[in-house]
Amino acid sequence: MARIIILGAGGRLGAALLREFAADHQVSGFNRAQLDLGDGGQLRETLGALEFDLLVNCAAQTNVDRCEAEPAEAFALNAEAPGLLAEICATQGARLIHISTDYIFEGAKTEPYTEEDEARPISVYGESKLEGERRVLAVSGDHLVARVAWVFGPDRASFVDWIIQQAREKEEVAAVADKFSTPTYTHDIAEMLRRLVVAGVADPGCASDVAPAAGVGHPGYHGGIIHLTSRGSCTWQEYGQWALDCCLAKGMELRAERVGAISLADMKQFVARRPVYTVLSTEKYERLTGQKPRTWQDAVRAYVRDHVAPTRAR
Question: ∠ CA(285), CA(291), CA(294), 5° rounding?
């Protein structure tokens, strides 16, 4: 049984990871109020007093526009803190999984980005997250950076919840139709991480000379960078339309049944630039595990079935 700590446990992904690992491992979590990612002294004191095999960092400043306005804060939370966490883990003889983002890419490609593609962020948020990746892996190649995209789940509202609520309240709704990525369910990310880390997988190209922490993986435990998303790609408009279609299939009443199209350029309220294409390739994950993630359509359908429709029926 591994001893696992989740940072950002009050967030969408952190809460899902707590549930996923709790059945078979000794898991504890810290939310923002319990542990301040920007307080290096507190991080050292709190985590240094604990014994653990694996630390998963889901905490970050993810408000893209706030990062643009507050770059010092963005780099403190998204770059400096992950580097410190990596050092703490190394001192403790533990491993770190650091959650990163598709926004480290500029969005110029028209085919899925691989882990080997050069990262060229176009926002402070993306720059700070990329620097966090670099600092984590500079401490140890045995640490794992997991890039995710368009994350949704039941523990905190996201785009899919917003578009459904808008469709229930208004006769017309619209979403961006020229920005592409992959909606990914927190349940699926948690399952993929468990398969990678706890079961342990061998990657001949990333073999570690360092023995793994007790109970976590084996000498072939994977470190480095991995992309963890659903399969396929879509725009925000297509994502929203599919969500509404799933709601209608479950008999939910909506005032708006179609999602109109707007362009990224129409989003005048955005402060930071957004990359237009950040679909992530999951081929590496599939090679390591022999498993294919489910499609984003299947993931959204499951979310509506299990979490959205039941709440509307109460």
Answer: 95
Q: Among this protein's residues, is 221 annotated catalytic?
A: no
Which residues neighbour 70 within 8 Å (Cβ) at sequence distance 6 or greater?
A: none
With a pLDDT cut of 90, the percent of the chain lying above it is 86
Alpha-carbon gap, residue 275 to 106, rounded angstroms: 5
| Dist. CA 67–CA 216, nearest whole Å | 34
| Long-range contacts, 283-286 (Cβ 8 Å, 24+) | 283/114, 284/114, 284/115, 284/226, 284/227, 285/192, 285/196, 285/226, 285/227, 285/228
pLDDT band at 311 (very low <50, low <70, confident <90, very high): confident
Q: Give me the mean pLDDT over the 224-252 stretch.
A: 97
Mean pLDDT of the chain: 91
Closest CA to 305 of 233, 247, 264: 247
Q: What is the pLDDT of residue 210?
A: 31
Is the pTM of the predicted complex or chain greater than 0.90?
yes
Q: Tokens for 250, please give them.
A: 């479950």
Looking at the DSSP bridge assignments, the partners of residue 184 are 151
* CA dist list (Å): 288 to 95, 202, 203, 223, 231: 19, 7, 6, 12, 16
Active-site residue, selected from the candidate residues 103, 125, 221, 239: 125
